[in-house]
Predict the 3D structure of the following.
Amino acid sequence: MKIVSYDVWDTIIRRTVHPDMVKIWLADHLVEHHAEYIKPDLRDSATLLHYRQLVERAVGQRSIALGKDDEYHLHEVIGGWLHKVTISGVCDMTTL
């Protein structure tokens, strides 16, 4: 018999906000305070959140292809996300 353990304390039991709330807040913040850096057709929170989710999925799939799990480092996702949604050449992670 195999014993399986799951670490879900923070993820399920202790959490008091929706798991994507911080992601939504960050997308809102970018639109409200840094819209000039965002491509004009992407300047709404829902669209920015969608692009972030696409980047998260792509980074996770690259990790799986390397024989790892689909977890990712935040800097990989944020960097890839900003690269996709900001106007080329005017923004990097240090600007925001």
Summary: The two ends are 51 Å apart (CA to CA). The chain is about 55% helix and 0% strand. Residues 45-65 form the longest helix (21 residues).
